[in-house]
Amino acid sequence: MTTLTKRTLSHLDWLESEAIYILREVAGQCSNPVLLFSGGKDSLCILRLAEKAFRPGRFPFPLMHIDTGHNYKEVVDFRDQRAEELGERLIVRSVEDSMKRGSVVLKTPDEPRNKHQSVTLLEAIEEFGFDCCIGGARRDEEKARAKERIMSFRDEFGQWDPKNQRPELWNLYNARSHKGENIRAFPISNWTEMDVWQYIEREKLELPSIYFAHQRDVVMRGGAIFPVNVPLANGDVINQPKPNEQVINMQVRFRTVGDITCTAPVLSDADTTEKIVIETATTTITERGATRLDDQTSDASMELRKKEGYF
Amino acid sequence: MSKIENLPTHNDSLLRFMTCGSVDDGKSTLIGRLLFDTKTILADTLTQITRTSEKRGLEAVDLSLLTDGLQAEREQGITIDVAYRYFSTGTRKYIIADAPGHEQYTRNMVTAASTANLAIILIDARKGVLTQTRRHSFLAHLVGIPHIVVAVNKMDLVDYDQTIYDKICSDYLKFATEIGLQRDGHDISFIPMSALNGDMLVDRGDAMPWYTGETMLEKLEAAPPAHSERAEQFRFPVQFVCRPHASDNPELHDFRGFMGRIESGDIAIGDSVSVLPSGLSSKVKAIQIGEEQLQSATTEQSITLLLEDEIDTSRGDMIVKTGQSPEPVKQIEAMLCWLSETPLSTARTYIVRHTTRESKAKVGTISYKVDVNTLDQLPADGLAMNDIARISFKLAQPLMVDSYITNRATGAFILIDESTNNTVGAGMIV
Known about the structure:
The complex is a heterodimer of chains A (311) and B (430).
Chain A: H1 11-29, E1 33-36, H2 41-54, E2 63-67, H3 73-86, E3 90-94, H4 95-101, H5 117-128, E4 132-134, E5 151-154, E6 182-185, H6 193-202, E7 214-221, E8 224-227, E9 230-231, E10 237-238, E11 248-253, E12 266-267, H7 273-285, H8 293-308
Parallel strand pairs in A: 1-2, 1-4, 2-3, 4-6
Antiparallel strand pairs in A: 5-6, 7-8, 7-11, 9-10, 11-12
Helix pairs in contact in A: 1-2, 6-7
Chain B: E1 13-20, H1 27-37, H2 43-55, H3 68-76, E2 83-88, E3 92-98, H4 106-114, E4 118-124, H5 131-142, E5 147-153, H6 162-178, E6 187-192, H7 216-222, E7 235-237, E8 240-242, E9 257-261, E10 267-268, E11 272-276, E12 280-289, E13 292-294, E14 296-297, E15 302-307, E16 318-321, E17 328-338, E18 349-354, E19 357-370, E20 377-378, E21 388-400, E22 412-416, E23 423-429
Parallel strand pairs in B: 1-3, 1-4, 4-5, 5-6
Antiparallel strand pairs in B: 2-3, 7-16, 8-9, 9-15, 10-14, 11-12, 11-16, 12-13, 12-15, 17-21, 17-23, 18-19, 18-22, 19-20, 19-21, 22-23
């Protein structure tokens, strides 16, 4: 019954096909899903996958961004531009509105707002009655994430209970939920950072400029490169250097983009996707990465963001 | 310092495999070693486990610490679960399903096995073929994994003695023949190994010159990817129907695209197809991925199919090649693994999800359950978590099924408890 000579799918083809399948399962099983879209590289991959899944039709879900108000202007502009090019509806809900409502209370005015995104997200889920949120989390991001489901169940309080997750067998995903409950769907669960960059390269995806090497004022803070004097879309400037810190102008790029107050760039001269692919591969196979301590800090900060914030 | 020859290309293939064994067999060390020797481990992770190893007074870095998340959970008695890990060699990307191997975790093994095309079964060279080896082998076989690699590990602790290795191989083969592990398209192979020292994993080492076969990594690199081994008959469960009639583009007013993933077989423009369960026939007019047009498509590709004729088709229907139709059935006979802490109730109605289709189902009869250690068939009138049984269901809606042995995609189903929406059972159609 089997032949071994069939055309083989490359790993990128396979991952793409799996992700398309997952997006279509969400569309087929859920009545009111939403795609979380930040303008970051993972969510840009998911937009391309959604095009392949649903064109020439429209996406069977709107896009939504939970904006902390502390996002890089380049990324926010890119987010709006991309949504417009696609002709898809973009919902933006803001942590600052939750602060005005009093549902988010900051301990200090300049504390990172990532963890507060989940409050705003839950408010938005309730406002629109979403039964599923599609996100760009990947299992390779962290050890604890290695067991996350592709369709992950959240209770009425939006909580993830590792002991109460559904077994996931074959490609038979179970996205059923009762009213008030929520499914988080992760179409690129099985992708690594390398796969993401290769896919961006293969699909010639455009990205916000800060992913590529650029000159930036930074200070060294807590062993990491910390961006300073960052202008916001509203004209404010945040991340002031402390009096004892020396501002240096460095060539850096961001491996992940998120809240300005807690995402660190890495030293890099990779100014094209091709160079980033090579840099990602080289980083991966560096056995003792003393020079890459900065990467590690940026990765750790990303993980924190994922755990406490969005997902 | 940089090894660009390991840079993955866009055309790498992909293999999903699972590891069966307990921590005592050196499973974590095996996985750690694969990740380490293929240079998948990031510097920060390595620094971290080096520090932990030093703290514990170990001479060398303990690679099993890479999968320490699981071990910590076990110590605390939290639910153990399947973990997925990734590495790439420059020619192939790998997804490892890492399942705990102890007796009470049958459901996790079945879960991990469901997406694997190859299983590594670990045997401790000092202990030989144990009850758990039989259990792992039976489950891998039940879930239809075509390639079994028996890794006789800890050879360093038996002085790399070939006679011990040979004895274990022949013991295993004897047992494998008894339970029918070897069948058409399925194979078993053996490797002597020391995961701790890295012998015969990625590097051969020089401790076992008597072994001339492939290393573990060579075996993994040579195994066929899953989609190349699927059944030949075309099976296309419809996931979603695309009808952009409200679009501004008048050319799209009659567009009707059937979206799904090819679960087996191939399709080309002009092929005659039937839509099930209605049985109505048509021809393939176009094949697309997004707006890209294809002439043909193959197993595991997610595509959009356009047909010549307007046939009423919705999610849950299945498109097949005319003349290759599975018979729609309203009763199924299956091997079922019970996954839930709440036992199976023969009085209740469950939901069967098969491909993209659902039906209500009632238990017919439980013929027997299997003792996974002795493989004895025992009488049963109910099922508890981790039980495996032969069982029949009556269905409210017809399903288009193949036997699991001929088709792992259209022979599989899950059971859902309607009150909790939990996935409570995993079935393989006999």
